[in-house]
């Protein structure tokens, strides 16, 4: 398995697909990266030469923010929102959806498993 920036990319997939295993590289950037470095995007990753791998790694290092640096940058942005106390920062702090989704139902991914509250069934009217 070829290694680029400390990430093992799959052998049996085409280069433009294999590059997507690097955090921060999607379909568009993978195609752009192959074009800029002069690597055939349809070539299998196992068939890449050392020179081609070096060109890809060099281009990624100089041009793009990927992997650990990108993760760190995202964490810093979220920490800044928390520190200034804006609405989005408060939502991050509470572990609730940040982008305006409803929370009365759904939002289970952000809120986690349901916490059942005892005695919260419909209260009957007293007469």
Which features characterize this protein?
single chain; 127 residues; mainly alpha; 2 strands; elongated
Task: Give an overview of the whole structure.
This protein is mainly alpha-helical and 127 residues long. It has six helices and two strands. The chain has a two-stranded antiparallel ribbon with strand order 1-2. Helix 4 packs across helix 5.
Quick structural gist:
The protein has six helices and two strands; from the N terminus they run E-E-H-H-H-H-H-H. The protein has helices at about 15-20, 25-35, 50-65, 65-85, 85-95, 110; strands at about 5, 5-10.
Average pLDDT figure: 91
In whole angstroms, the N-to-C terminal distance is: 75 Å
Query: Order of SSEs, N→C?
Result: EEHHHHHH
Q: Which parts are unreliable, with pLDDT below 50 for 5 consecutive residues or more?
A: none
State Rg.
Answer: 23 Å
- Helix and strand content put the structural class at mainly alpha
Number of DSSP strand runs:
2
* Most strands sheet: 2 strands, antiparallel
- The portion of residues forming beta strands comes to under 5%
How helical, in percent, are the residues? 40-55%
| Order of adjacent strands in the largest pleated sheet | 1-2
Shape estimate: elongated
């Amino acid at each position: 398995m070829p290694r680029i920036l400390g990430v093992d990319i799959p052998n049996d997939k085409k280069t433009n697909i294999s590059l997507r295993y690097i955090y921060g590289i999607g379909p568009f950037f993978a195609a752009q990266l192959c074009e800029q470095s002069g690597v055939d995007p349809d070539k299998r990753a196992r068939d890449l030469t050392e020179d081609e791998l070096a060109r890809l790694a060099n281009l990624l290092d100089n041009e793009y923010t990927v992997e650990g640096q990108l993760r760190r940058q995202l964490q810093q942005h979220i920490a800044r929102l928390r520190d200034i106390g804006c609405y989005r920062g408060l939502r991050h702090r509470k572990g609730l959806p940040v982008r305006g989704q409803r929370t009365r139902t759904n939002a289970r991914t952000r809120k986690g498993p349901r916490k059942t509250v005892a005695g919260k069934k419909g209260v009957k009217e007293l007469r």
